[in-house]
Amino acid sequence: MYFSDMENLDVKICIIGAGCSGLTAIKNLTQAGFNNVTCFEQNPWIGGNWKYTAETSHSSVCSTTHIISSKTMSAYTDFPMPDNYADYPSHEEVLAYFESYADKFDLKKFIHFDTKVEVVTKLDDDQWEIKTQDNTLYTFDKLIIANGHHSHPRHPDFKEDFNGEYIHSHSFKNNVPFIDKKVLVIGAGNSGCDCAVETSRVAQKVDISLRTPQYIVPKFFLGKPSDTFNEKTLFLPMFVRNILLKASLRFQIGKYSDYGLPIPEHGILNAHPTMNSELLYKIRHGKVNPKPAIEKITNKTVYFVDGRHEVYDSIIAATGYKITTPFFDSKFLDYSDADRVPLYLRIFHPVHNSLFFIGLFQPQGAIWPASDLQAQLLTKHLKGKYEIPHNVLELAHKESDDIDRMFMKRKRHTIEVDFHKFARQLRKAIG
Description:
The two termini are about 20 Å apart. By secondary structure, the chain is α/β, with parallel strands linked by helices. Helix 1 packs parallel to helix 8 and helix 8 packs parallel to helix 10.
């Protein structure tokens, strides 16, 4: 597939979503001279997931959320985070960073706020018809999807079997509802560990159920953010990096069995990292108790696969999210339960050559700088200075094969990428 607009800067471009990925798409396109860019944002603000609200909403951040990648590794490529920011910025600092980015590059004038896209239809000439919630119709030449992938919770099968209070971690805002309660957190990813730590400050009892052994990695190593240490190992082959990182983790925290945690058999780099400095502390202080996978639930009693059972007042399911594009007919495109998402460089759809994605990946690191690189490459393509390879379908499936080979077979890894490898691929394509 080859495509070239040859400096057609009047091409009509639609972007869905003004979160971190949508913002950098607007910035790169408009900075390159594209003057017909329209972004639809269903909320009255920018920042997507990082706009905290006390009520259940689009956002999954809670009142105490901090990012899990350091500020030096999380910034857009040409817009560093302020020096006075914390090593791991809070959600307030992150949102302020996005506001500064939008103001610096005058991005808000391209955004239609409070405008939800209801239906997207592909037309016969590769154009796109957009219908918003007020039934207004728009037509665009190119469509960029940047609506994120942390908005539609994935629930466990036994959700309806529990008669107590049940929430998904997406709805966890603070620990107040769990004062003096017996709480079970399902899942030991980043959200699960955060929920367990926060509820343990006020709850009568907090248990955390792990279906799969996880590496719980402290956020600092030898006084420095852990991801900056990991960056120093990039010159090594992956199997050597896995050995080195596992050894450094063992040196830092000891044996997982000392915490009552199962020992992972996979390499640290073969699964999405769980970055948390407090969970292990809470376990050793008896405030959080590890539990194995769940066998079944009856009323308020949870039965575990080791034969034990416990009664709980509340369950917090930190069981991940589905990839959703609700504006598409599911017969046209639906990744919600897909095991593979074949996109070339996580941008280019192998069949629809006027459809693009920015930010539809889960990095072992920060999403924002890689989204920025994606937007730079897409801008170059739309200016006719980067041609999509003719074997794009083959390459898209090869990327999915690489993901299957590199990471554990889990829904959470469907769009997983090694941040540094992915960034190198994008930079090479950009030239």
